[in-house]
Design brief:
With about 130 residues, the protein is mainly α. The chain is built from five helices and no strands. This is DoxX family protein.
């Protein structure tokens, strides 16, 4: 179980680090032009998109760094909880925009983040 949690955490960290950095450094217009999966950006201001990206980058760092450095490892499930909340908002946005095909991806990320929260607060916590 610990290995599965580390693998999922690592994959989430990479995905959110790359996705968040993309949102932070790319102008809103280019994000929207990136394809159908990025049309959600039409509903948000440029500042909001950058904020979402910064939160994703911080959460990606928070998923791994506290545990690796053994400094405040309780931040790992809190970072995963933050990502779960971001993905809840993403899913709501997809539902509102009637983008049901893309909703599945958001729900997968939500479930993976929730699994990390559950695993790191429960059976495979760093304090136990």
């Amino acid at each position: 179980m610990n290995l599965a949690l580390w693998i999922i955490t690592g994959l989430l960290a990479v995905a959110y680090l790359l996705g968040g950095a993309f949102k932070v450094i790319t102008p809103k217009e280019k994000i929207i032009a990136a394809g159908a999966s990025a049309r959600w950006a039409e509903d948000f201001s440029a500042g909001s998109i950058k904020t979402i990206g910064a939160l994703e980058v911080l959460a990606a760092v928070g998923l791994v760094l506290p545990a690796v450095l053994d400094t405040a490892p309780v931040l790992v499930p809190l970072a995963a909880l933050g990502l779960a909340l971001i993905m809840t908002g993403a899913a709501i946005t997809r539902i509102r925009r009637r983008e049901t095909a893309l909703l599945v991806v958001d729900l997968v990320y939500l479930v993976l983040a929730a699994f990390v929260v559950w695993g790191r607060l429960g059976p495979e916590s760093f304090t136990g």
